[in-house]
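Lab notes, practical 5.
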Amino acid sequence: MNKPSLTYLVRQPKINIAKPPLLILLHGVGSNEKDLFSFASHLPVKFLVISARAPIVLGQSSFAWYQVDFSTGKPVYNQAQEKESRETILKFIDELKEHHSFDEKEIYLVGFSQGAIMSYSVALTHPEKVKGIGILSGRLLEEIKPFIKTEQVSRVNVFISHGIQDPMLPVAYAEEASSYLKSLGVTANFKKYAEGHGINQEMLTDLVTWMNNEILSSIGK
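Output from the prediction step:
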């Protein structure tokens, strides 16, 4: 049995279920797998929760899905690294099948900041693999739009949360993504908050509500 490509933490379902839905958490730049895993105990009991560590080392306990430069006032990122990380996440999902039992038709991604960007990129270019995404303070990369499987993305369930006071990724990114998704036939559950670039209790509560109402209701709570 081969070791998966990414280091990760796992929370097993809190109820006995043979093939649980899989929820993968993707952290932001400069963080690690422990970050989003800190609220794993608040996530619905039915999920197999996997919190993955990004592959690029920035420093001690500091990782990224790709390198990004904010010095111009707008994020300029390494497109080759983003593409490689996207492929790594897809490979990681397949590798998890050897180590954990889960429903391969019920795979979801939740990401914060750069992890949210990766969630968009993976799900919209491979909607046959990912059934839903939770986007926490992220943006949709213009460069992946030519690779989006527009005829299939309507199956992807999308939750977007964003702080209206976000100085790093302004809320306009979320508004643009929501409008673009609507043009593809995807109506995102889009919520704004009096928050900066972070996750507060209200965001987490709304994320869990979305999971219960939009995801788990269709497969049984």
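Observations recorded by the TA: The longest strand covers residues 157-163. Residues 8-219 form a domain with the Rossmann fold fold (CATH 3.40.50.1820).
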